[in-house]
Amino acid sequence: MSARKLVSASFANLLIPISGLLVSPFLSRELGPEGRGVYAALTLPIVVWGWIGTYGLQDSLSYHIRQGRLSSRAAARVSVLAMAPLSVLAVGLLAVLGLVLFPDTDEYREFLVLALFAPLHVLSNLFIGALTGNSDIRGLNLVKVVPALVRTGLVVVACLAFELNAYQAGLIFAGSVLAGLVIGLVRLRDAGETPPVEYSPSGVPTASLIRYALACLPGVLAAVSSARLGQIIGLPLIGARELGYYAVAVSVAEIPMVIATAARSMLLGRQASGDTRAATQVARLAVLACGVACVGLALVASVAVPLFFGAAFEPAVTPTIILCAATVLYTCMTIYSAALLAYNRPGWSSAALVAGSVAGVAALLAFAPFGAVGAAAASLVGYAVTMIIAAVGVRRVSELQSLRMLTVPYDDDVQLIRNRIAMVTTRLRQLTAAAPDRTEGGPENPRAELSLLARLIGVGRRHGVGTVGVAALIVLAWLRIVSAQTMHLLIAGRPAFNSREVVGSSIGDLVGDGLTFLFLLLAAGLAAHGFWRRRPTSYGRLAVALAAFVALEIGGLLHGHTPSAVAAAFPLAATAIWAQRPRPELLGVVGVLGGLTAAGSMLFAVIRPDVALLTGEAAGDKKVLLGGLLTGPYLHSNVLGLALALSVAFVFLLRRPALRWACLGVVLGALVWTGSRTSQVAAVAVIGAYVLIRLLGGRSWPASLAFVAGALLVGVVPLITSDPASFSERGRIWTVLLDRWAESPVVGWGQDAFQEPAVTAALGGQFNHGHNVMVQVLVVGGLLALVPFLLLCFVAWRRAAALCGAGQPVPLLFLVALAHVSWLEASHVSTTLTGYVTWLPLLVIALAGPAATPVSRGVTAAASPVPSTDPDDRPESETVEPPALLP
Questions:
Q1: How far is it between the farthest Cα atoms of the chain?
Q2: Fewest C-beta in 10 Å: which of 231, 291, 549, 649?
Q3: 629 SS3 class
Q4: DSSP one-letter string for 14-81
Q5: SS3 content of the chain, % helix, strand, coil (to 5)
Q6: Phi–psi pair at 769, nearest 5 degrees
Q7: Residue 630 in 3-state DSSP?
Q8: Tens of pLDDT, residues 642-675
Q9: C-alpha to C-alpha distance for 591 and 605, rounded to whole angstroms
């Protein structure tokens, strides 16, 4: 059994409850406790019927493919043909069930519409059964994960953009399974024909399939009560509010179940070894891991549940703790049941599940007066009964020596865990140990103690002047924004919300001006150095970049506004990047700076919450965490959220795993604290695209599709929005600014367009950007700026797609983040150094040289540099592979 497959299956299964956790806070706040309960009652029968509606055929397909009696393509044909009778049964029986669950006519009508999607869920589970028997873990992961990611993205966007009700959320949930069906069909078709061991004229052992399915059928029908029957029949028994609490508790406590599900898939698939003890090692480790995880969840439930789901869901804490204990029993039950099915004992599995189902239903009826707590206790009783009877059946399997073989680790299992822990510990110690000096030999060499200047010169020689210089530009821009603004806040305090109050200090202005001057000087020096070392020949991409910046200033010039010296910063930086051709790996600096910004902002909030947190009216209707919305050194939490969301992708460029995951955790934690919903959606899109790229073997189309979807939102939403109150009053902002742009459509109005009193009065407040990048560019630079800006994004996308195909997905992931933050925000495209986190990475992606050949197990590993047909598209040093610029 492959350890990599086990980890992959566990991680994929983990994404499903994680997606539920990501969606649940949005749904809980959008629908409220009662609406959340109605949503659970509408959708859970569809999910559960996806299990019931297979009538045991899912496990039958797994068993016959595992035994070599059925090919994958034949299994796909059986699944599709079986859907004709199964669909009629599914819709008809759900219609009858709806009469019991929904006495209200409108709710019943909505449920009938959702019931039409039930056959699709049945077919998805049949495909899962076939892929499980074939041990196609990658295909199994995709069929499960892709619908969850699609569902998460659509629900989050819908909650932010529209007034969502339980029925509309249910439609998104039910329809998302289509993505998994397409993938499952393709995987089974591409698996090819495997000659069956037992001959059948049709190639399908129909009689054997039916017999095995009928033996599994009682267990399949009973399994729903061991899983989520409480959520199905809970509405009439405990009420919508208590059902909402119970649904939240289930979404938390079910997280460790992913390990048991992964182990079940391994046990039901084809075994690579005939050693039973080795083949069941995954079961023993799964029980241990689930126990540890459940204890941890139970300990933090009292804090985590109200924090993530809101104070209104505090009554869900006790059901969560009870269900954590039930999950341990569920894990043992799942392991035992899988062993019985794998060793041709479906009758014992069904008997155990039926007995547990009866006990669970009886307990639910008895404990119903206790609400969500009673439903959780009923689940505990049902799992316990099933586990005990399944254990009796396992003891009768001669191939399995004892129950310990499936539950309690052996000495070699414990040794394996110790070795893994020791390996991780050793790795962490190596990461924290001081690196040896590579310049002058060992530590005893007196010349090893080099000056800072000598070290910088050595770094420049190893990586090239261009790569180090452009990285220094990014650091200078970050220092300019963070340091100066922090000084302003500490000296003058936070300005009033939505005002033109100028927050400044002489020290902050002096530091800011000095860093700006250094940025301009370094950019000019890099540009001159690049021209001196070589004679660049491809001017097209540089012309596109410069045209965008020039056009953004023309409108202001024509309307009497003189640009400041800082307007030359990004054009000089673009010229420097184009002339130097640095490697795109330098953008890992942005990931490090994102981690520093997140950690520093949280520390700032602890020390000075009065200036680092946004509270009261300024926080609006957003959920305030830990005393306020995190702003750090910025004037608004949304601005900090943008900086963090745009840096998420570059964290994956860090080569040291400890540093990489530490930065990612800190950035995501701070992002949640900001309450910036647009930035949170962008971060989810980036991580989702990254997961799909990894699951699909490095293919770039998932991220490209996410980028195009975000770009369409940027271009379409402001044009079709007519309600001024839409998107938190952004509808009025877009309408006013687009009307203003129509008065000067070609060149716009320049950077000072938002300072005009008439515009301020029409907007109903003091705003300094258009809350949409397309609107912002049109108002400031008109069509003359929009066209080159779009061309620059297109060039960057083509370059990023090529890098992704060569194993470097990070630039494309950045474009996904950029697109998804740009449809509701625009402060990140400022042409002052405030926009460094947008413009500098965009310019590096579009203008930099090819990626280096990775030399470690980074997440961006590539086989070779990206090929280029441009004779000038080479970095400054290609003869020797440079060491990593970042840790």
A1: 90
A2: 291
A3: strand
A4: HHHHHHHHHHHHHHHHHHHHHHHHHHHHHHHHHHHHHHHTTTTHHHHHHHHHHTTSS-HHHHHHHHHH
A5: 75, 0, 25
A6: -155, 170
A7: strand
A8: 999 999 999 999 888 888 888 999 999 899 888 8
A9: 21
Report DSSP letters for 253-276, one per residue.
Answer: HTTTHHHHHHHHHHHHS--S-S-H
In Å, what is the CA distance from 467 to each residue of 320, 351, 800, 844, 886?
51, 66, 18, 10, 12
In the three-class reduction of DSSP (H, G, I as helix; E, B as strand; rest coil), residue 594 is classed as helix
The residue type of 378 is: A
Q: What is the residue whose two structure tokens read 């179940």? A: 257
Report the SS3 class of residue 193: coil
Angle at 702 between CA 697 and CA 704, to 5 degrees: 120
How many residues in the chain? 887
**Positive or negative torsion for Cα 329, 334, 335, 340:** positive
Count of Cβ atoms closer than 10 Å to residue 376 Cβ = 27
Contact 780, 539 (CB under 8 A): no
Looking at residue 618, its pLDDT comes to: 62
The CA distance from 689 to 701, in Å, is 9
**DSSP assignment of 651-678:** HTT-SSHHHHHHHHHHHHHHHHHHT-HH
Across the strands, what pairs with 629? 614
- Rounded Cα distance, 93 and 387, in Å: 29
pTM greater than 0.70 (yes/no): no
How many Cβ atoms are within 10 Å of 355's Cβ, its own excluded? 17
- The rounded mean pLDDT for the chain is 80
> Which residues are registered as beta bridge partners of 614?
629
Residues 824-866: tens digit of each pLDDT: 999 888 888 888 899 999 999 998 766 554 433 334 433 334 4
Q: Which helix H or strand E contains 292, and what residues bound it?
A: helix 281-309
- Angle between helix 773-805 and 540-558 (nearest 10): 170
CB atoms within 10 A of CB 699: 14
SS (H, E, C) 679-709: HHHHHHHHHHHHHHHHHCCCCCHHHHHHHHH
Q: Nearest CA to 197 among 25, 51, 341, 63?
A: 63
420-468: per-residue pLDDT in tens?
788 877 776 665 554 444 434 444 444 444 454 555 556 556 667 888 8
Phi, psi of 656 (to 5 degrees): -85, 120
Is 613 exposed, middle or buried (CB count within 10 Å of its CB: 0-12, 13-18, 19+)? Answer: buried
**Rounded-to-integer distance, Cα 450 and Cα 440, Å:** 9
DSSP letters spanning 752-768: TGGG-HHHHHHHTS--S
The residue among 300, 301, 295, 271 whose CA lies nearest residue 283 is: 271
Positive or negative: CA dihedral 18, 24, 27, 29: negative
State the SS3 of 217-241. Answer: HHHHHHHHHHHCHHHHCHHHHHHHH
Place of tokens 């927050």: 503
